[in-house]
Design a protein that fits this description.
By secondary structure, this protein is an alpha+beta fold. Helices cover about 30% and strands about 25% of the residues. The chain has 7 helices and 11 strands. The strands form 4 sheets. A 5-stranded antiparallel beta sheet has the order 2-1-3-4-5. A two-stranded antiparallel sheet has the order 6-8. The protein has a two-stranded parallel ribbon with strand order 7-9. Strand 1 and strand 2 form a beta hairpin.
Length: about 190
Amino acid sequence: MPDLRVEMAAAARHLAETDGKVAEGLGIANWRDLIARGLIGIACGAIGRGDLFTPAEFGHGPVHLIAGAIAIGGIVDYAAFLPQRPEHWGLRTGDGQFLGPDDVRQAIKGYGWGPDLATLHLHATPLAWLQAEGEGCVVIDGFGSDTGFLLREVERIAVPNPAFGRALRRQLMPPLRLPEIVVNGGTNGARTCR
């Protein structure tokens, strides 16, 4: 198991050594604050099978921007992407669900205070999330596990454009076809429940 704290610290150090040129060139003005929060860095490596990122020694391989998935207790994963392809990212471990999970918890109905906390700002890419200074969230697990369930608990989700909103709605809709449910037993065999 990789030591994500060490990897994220090295990625942050590499970004700081470039004076944030990569981040600033991508419209991430407040990169120093994001480093302090453990949310940004740069690393060399490649995205391979299963959309997992494998880091390489710095200077060996293409430079990826790194966005940390922080949850209670620290970093759980990070998303890595090429600056010129922010819509395609790989995860380091595959354990991350969201960038910005605290914002998801605050937006769930009945959690938090005030009308602004009831709206979750959902970004399409880790780059957009970093440009928004780590506010809101990004789904990084491709709607695996219970991601859709959690997002359906949110009162209101703000998205960057109508196309992304339509795609999100399709992801969150229950399946149109339900399986046939039968009751086993009895002398007549299985019966369908309607």
